[in-house]
Amino acid sequence: MYDHLQHLTDRRGLFEHADGTQPRLEHGYCTDDNARLLVVTGRDPDSSVARRLGRTALEFVLGAQDVDGRCRNRMDQTGEWTDLGTTDDCWGRALWALGETAVSHHDPSVRRRALRAFERGARCRSPWIRSMAFAALGAAAVLQHDADDTIARALLVDTLRLVGPAPTGAWAWPEPRLRYANAVLAEAVIAAGAALDRPADVDRGLGMLAWLLELETPAGHLSVTGTGGRGPADVGPQFDQQPIEAAAMADACFRAHRLTGDARWAHGVTVAVGWFTGDNDAGVSMMDPMSGGGFDGLHVDRVNLNQGAESTLALVSTMQRARSFAPAA
């Protein structure tokens, strides 16, 4: 499962891009991908490859955080940071990873370090809806573990306010266009509602997810929003399609099923897995059985043969959900 990710990782972290299966060293590393690596390795026992990759990812994410809680995203191949701290997606993904690690990691010292960094970062706010949604996943994990964590609670309340209600009618989504990692917005609302014990928000998130799943399975298989986004007047299928969309759908449906036991969320996980294995708009596999990597994009008649970090992490994450998924009886 981790073979290609090992190949893309050195002592500093996970390289962002690949030319085929070979890491493109000149493009360096990013916090976005190392945070995702920390999330997926944290779902497995803290041993062997998962332990080594997880510790590398943890050190990268901790090193990316500034003293004010913001995060830098880009490091060059020499180990030098090339940008300043922000509350962009890298901040949100870092908090997602740190919150999950603070609650579920097997090593108490790792949990303590992750929690300190989470609480430093969770005092910040982002104007970007996806950044806050990613951060909310970490905050929900922390709050469900410790109901008295006021920092996590405040972040969740602010995330729900930023997402806002989904409109009624045919376009039941809180944005005028779908963009990227779309299902994370629904998952964040579900997770925040559950952690805050606000059933109306849980129902709001489930409604968002049901609408998105129906929109993106018009022919039974998953047909995700393309890189150009999708508005009310746009029709599918769209290209290029990115693995992050299928992985976000799998995560959101996995959470929804855990919370409700509703079989339609089992179907959501199934179609996300199918997108990788060839049940997609082009009828081609999005995974390389030799390297264990995931291909970078789905075109109308072919795949992008590069196997970068984001795509491979999306594949690994989705297959993790499939393995641990237990359909309702």
In short:
The chain is mostly helical. It has helices at 3-7, 31-41, 48-64, 89-104, 108-121, 129-145, 150-163, 183-195, 199-215, 243-260, 263-277, 309-324; strands at 18-19, 22-23, 29-30, 74-75, 297-298, 303-304.
**Helical proportion?**
40-55%
Low-pLDDT regions: none
Total individual domains: 2
Order of H and E elements: HEEEHHEHHHHHHHHEEH
Radius of gyration: 18 Å
Number of helices: 12
Quick one: CATH class of the largest domain?
Answer: Mainly Alpha
What is the count of β-strands?
A: 6
Strand content bin: under 5%
State the secondary-structure class.
mainly alpha
The end-to-end span amounts to 28 Å
Indicate the mean pLDDT. 96
C-alpha geometry: globular
Largest sheet: 2 strands, antiparallel
Strand order of the largest sheet: 1-2
The CATH level-2 architecture of the largest domain is identified as: Alpha/alpha barrel
The CATH topology assignment of the largest domain is Glycosyltransferase
Quaternary status: single chain
Keywords:
329 residues, Glycosyltransferase, 2 domains, two-stranded antiparallel ribbon, mainly alpha
Structural account:
- There is one protein chain.
- The chain is mainly alpha-helical.
- It folds into two domains: 1-161, Alpha/alpha barrel (Glycosyltransferase), CATH 1.50.10; 164-329, Glycosyltransferase.
- 53% of the residues lie in helices and 4% in strands.
- The protein has twelve helices and six strands.
- It has helices at 3-7, 31-41, 48-64, 89-104, 108-121, 129-145, 150-163, 183-195, 199-215, 243-260, 263-277, 309-324, and strands at residues 18-19, 22-23, 29-30, 74-75, 297-298, 303-304.
- It has a two-stranded antiparallel ribbon. Strands 3-4 form a two-stranded antiparallel ribbon.
- It starts with a helix and ends in a 5-residue tail after the last helix.
